[in-house]
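hey so i finally got around to running both of the ones u sent me last week. sorry it took forever, my laptop kept dying halfway thru and i had to restart like 3 times lol. anyway pasting them below in the order u listed, first the sequence line then the structure token line for each. didnt double check formatting much so if smth looks off just lmk and ill redo it

first one:
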Amino acid sequence: MSTFELVNSIRFVINGFGIWDNVCFIQGINAAGNGGTQPSLPTSAMYQLDIVLKKGNSLAIRDRGGTSDPYVKFKIAGKEVFRSKIIHKNLNPVWDERVCLIVDNLQEPLYIKVFDYDFGLQDDFMGSAYLYLDSLELQRSLDVQLDLQDPQCPDQDLGSLELVVTLFPRSTEDREALRHAVRLIWQIYVQQQNLRLSDLYRKSQLWRGIVSIRLIEGRNLIPMDQNGLSDPYVKFKLGPQKYKSKTIPKTLNPQWREQFDLHLYDEEGGILEISVWDKDIGMRDDFIGQCQLDLSKLSREKTHKLELELEEDKGMLVLLVTLTATVTVSISDLSVNLLDDPHERQQIIKRYSPLRSFFNLKDVGMVQVKILRAEGLMAADVTGKSDPFCIAELCNDRLQTHTVYKTLNPEWNKVFTFNVKDIHAVLEITVYDEDRDRSADFLGKVAIPLLNIRNSEQKAYVLKNKELTRPTKGVIFLEADVIFNAVKASLRTFVPPEQKYIEEEAKVSKQMLQQNFNRVKRCVLFLINTGSYINSCFQWESPRRSLCAFLIFVVVVWNFEIYMVPLSLLLLLTWNYFLLASGKEPREGSVVSVFMDCTYDKMNSDSEKKGFLDKFYAVQDVIITVQNALDEVACFGERVKNTFNWSVPFLSWLAITVLCAGATLIYFIPLRFIVLVWGINKFTKKLRDPYNIENNELLDFLSRVPSDIQLVQYKDLKAETSQSPSKKRRNNPG
């Protein structure tokens, strides 16, 4: 449980008592009156104060455009207990926000301050007022209008605030119950920090089923922008898992058509939290509405079409939700190993045999990895030792070993079993050092594509840095087995890959921007060189080459048939295959050297990045978009190249199969009929399946082909038995 989750848990419990915004029992609030006298209330009792911040009237102008961006703060005894949302460009803002406070001393006033929000600058003061409570009757709502003043200029008219204030008596039992709840949550938090792989912790890592969600559309969302529209996107949260949809600009009836899967860790289902937001560039996104879905009320193995109303009639979301009850991951000791049992192994092989290729297409296979031990790890503690533990990740599945304390050569001897939904997924093994008082320290990481695993082979992998580009100190010993159905794996190659939901947030990186630019530059130069070569044939720079090119052009054009297109690609794949079989490696070594030699001064870049973000935060989203666009363009070009370079033999063989089938189909069937069938399929797809999610099979295939930088990350490093001190220092930058 993180500190943020702890605070939210305390907030949740306190809300159960109808109170929040002061766990430490806020000192005194008095409601302002107009001088009237009321019977004095006991100042030492416990009260609940409900405040509705309604609106502001004729507030002060603080921006050049003749407006302000006001928000309100409540303070008691110098401590901030509430902050309202920001209303942009409005001198008569309407908040309609409710806050509930607990007070046990009515002598302290509530100090209310209004500010104008200025992005990247200090916020401007717009006025303040005090709220007193000694003349307020119990259990009676009072409309209060507070005139804002500036202590430096008391005669200046700064407008007013309108509030509704209600005071309720509270018993001392509520105070004790609140303290007991906070104390109980803290005890649970401490217990969870001390557990690593207990039975409870192990159970929390194993998911019991899959929630497949298709986000179809939104209806009648409320406008949040000045143009009367919104730029909506949706956030989903199920336990620790989160998913964020794409943003649909300028609409109140967005069409998302997105599909994703979440894991069920609770056998009863759990609560799916859904919130809708309006995207605002350069400022905080606006909250549109929210709703919840109780998954325990949905039947399994059935698709449910749901029309969920957002709270307070702020619109509707249309979803298709399917619950699948499956147990697909497990943790066991080395002595309990399914694949070591010949009978169990045969049952698993039979389950993924070719005869069952069209049963449950999402169940492609299974992978079992034995995390045995590590040697020569980096010392992360001041004692010269570490407390290492290991995390194995496959897409969104994440399992963790226990911690071995005070050693640089730990032995875990754990067996992890994962279900394979995509044979092109990458198994990531990360080693951390446990620190009880802070986040774990990174010790090393390896990334292993499932297609690169050789069954039952125990192998020592050299640990790499976080970027997987350079070695760090230590090796880890693993043994893995992958059993899969090739037909299912081939079919799954042409559907969108599973998105990873827990990823680090994208950040501005000068190093990454330069690296992506160089990758795009290499692809563009390749195209330019190819065009120059073809142009040289036209220019007759080499008469022999130009004559051959002319004859080939005449023969091909004269005898051209459409089947020659996949056939030529097939010949290119075959040519590269024979080059590879003859011992001529593809030009991967040069790619590795390019990335391995690209080093930068990270300390300077980090300091520059922080200064850049402080001054130019408004353009961060633009820079990240450009950075990611460069990465996408580079990946596309590299993946096309690597398809024909046999970087992944499985994909190259699959490409050969598809190209052979395509050439045969086009050869025997006239093109006009193929185009006709394709057009009919395209025009009728929407009628046959109104909720169909569009995809491009070619792009989905290319997404499985690793780019050059991924080839570097997945390349095995040779462990050196003896190294000089200078080499060790070079290989261990941390």
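and the second one:
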Amino acid sequence: GRRQYSFLIRNIGIMAHIDAGKTTTTERMLYYSGYTRALGDVDDGDTVTDFMVQERERGITIQSAAVTFDWKKHRINLIDTPGHVDFTLEVERALRVLDGAVAVFDASAGVEAQTLTVWRQAEKHHVPCICFLNKMDKPGASLHFSIESIKKKLKANPVILQIPIGSGKSFTGLIDLITNQQMTWRVKSRAEDGRVFETKSLSQSDDPELLQDAMEARAALIEQLQEAVRRVTLARKGVPVLCGSSLRNKGVQPLLDAITAYLPAPNERHHDLVRWYQDDLCALAFKVVHDKQRGPLVFVRIYSGTMKPQSAVLNINRNNTERMSRLLLPFADQHVEIPSLTAGNIALCVGLKQTVTGDTIVSSKASAVAAVRRAQKEKEGERKRGGEQASLVLAGVEVPEPVFFCSIEPPTMSRQADLENALTCLQREDPSLKVRVDSDSGQTILCGMGELHIEILHDRIRREYGIETHLGPLQVAYRETILQSMATTDTLDRTVGERRHMVTVSVVVCPIMDSSSSSLTSCEITYDEEVEEQLSPDVRDAVENGVNSSYLQGPLLGYPVQGVSTMIQSVSMEPGTSLAMLSACVSRCMLKALRQAGGQVLEPVMSLEVTVGEEHLSSVLGDLAQRRGAIRDIQSRHDSKVLLATAPLAEMMGYSTALRTLTSGNATFSLQLDIYEAMNPQHQNALLNKMAGLA
């Protein structure tokens, strides 16, 4: 039987650099635990968790699917985390669903850029980790080098539990330092699948040099062994290190044992939500996947309470009640239907039609209110600012503003409706994708987090929905604002059929300066006191529609306007004038005012962190200077330098390739949106000329 006791559950993720062998490791875990019949390789692209075809082609994992399997007495839920920098948001979401993680490293490459980024995120969420040094069979594989790399780059304290027997081609097994046993995988034939391995105690008759190594390594492990290792891991004071080669089928079973022995059960991670909701249901929808037969499938992590099919649940984010029809466990070989599921589990819900990735699901309004009350009480107890209701909307992740966009067109107009449907589905799965329609050209615009993000969406539309779309050039999401205040009046006088529409509007626009906050200062609308009193609510709505529509497209380049305050000074309408005409007059007047107020382009400026060896520092600095970069700080971290800088996004296109060339691949970097900043006149003119050339 497939049991579900909370303390025997392990919700874990595998974090890794793109080529460290994460997918192969997952595949082997499923194989040895009896859920897949044949071994798959990423190299052949037929692995279980990479369930989107295009990931197979790229060999990278983007869709965080969850897979469930049993190992010995434990239920393991493996949550797949993407290993690419453009998918920070997915990683962030996955980390709230995990209780522990396995970091897979290429033993010949040590800690690579991507791992560093994800590791920092894991630290931020206090997720306990185990390290698996994979690819021990590669020529350059080295335990010593990898351990040094973990100490230096991750600033972690490695607790070495195994040492390899042989390395490179002669890697045949491991020595377990706790039990003092050696495990060897005999290779009789090519078809050896690694299921059978031999475990025996070390004895004096073995290679004396090996014995000496093992004795020394073991002496260093004076800690009170397994219990101690577990305590240290859960407190994040150390990370157990294991080694193996998934591709050669070595070392995966002991890794599974270590997951159950050292990583936390759900009740050992103290999620606030559990305290606040107590026995009431609280769950996070961490992934929505569209299934052609069953409609949207929602992956959930249950933090507290119990989930049952056929019961109504409240989605806090959408503030609506939904009923799920079925509840399934996502076992690797098949989805198994179940009558109810308790806290700590991962499940698949069928029938939740409105739920979007990142939403929080509870049993009722009353339970959410009770939880808010407990949270507030606790916060008052800690003398914090009054408890904010927002903190209860569970583990939803803040979705950042997209910084890149491009137009997308169907092959023929007859496919436009299909494309719209595909984009609606994709937005539910991926909240960091925004879709809008350009009011001038009528084109559909995709807005995303990075170059790869948009490229992959394009791929998925082709594969999953069978639409060959055309993408316009990738563009930076600029914004616009104004330089000075300006008062303008405009009159619209139009006869349509029998009716004469006549309206006169006066507005004053002025810039709101808020340089302190990195978030975009939104625009506001105020009224002259007398005007406000004399306008009826529907007239006011029409005026605000006119103002807001003019904010969508700035006067210079048609980018969204921000940081503008508009004051409505007077509105006079002849009887019989329609509200639509009033809105039209207001937006025409606004456009005139914004044009006269002097346009200013704001560009997204990214904060950049580059970790690089001292020998490459000057060339990296020189390159940043050419990209209009501003250096904020240079810190030392052991023998490498950490460079903190800001640079305009427009100058950072293709930076990863450039950095690789400059440093022979020995630097890592991360980019995120810092602030929208005014462009200087010279750069702004260059941009305007370039855009005029494009148009």
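quick thing i noticed on the 2nd:
Residues 365 and 675 are 37 Å apart (CA to CA).
anyway thats it, ttyl
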